[in-house]
Input
Amino acid sequence: MQLLSKEEIINYKEHLNIKIDNIIPLVDLYDNIFLVYNIDDDTFAKLNITDEIIYGKTKTIENYLKLLQEYIVKKIEHIVRFFNLIIIRFKITVQKVLK
Output
């Protein structure tokens, strides 16, 4: 997840390699998904730049902040499970070596 720079926002069509008009891309969320402001209908939405599809429109950005929070928590939980698995495997290996 990364905020776009002023240059990336101004030149979004070239930067994102898309043809969609009247949006302001704000955040690169993940996997070719961006949070955008849709000028035409005064909404925030997600943009899939691969398919150039805008979806999940909402009038307030708070809804997306909640979704981002949920996404981040899930990613952190995944990382914690991964490291716990590594620690368990390491302990098992150490026990085998010490026998």
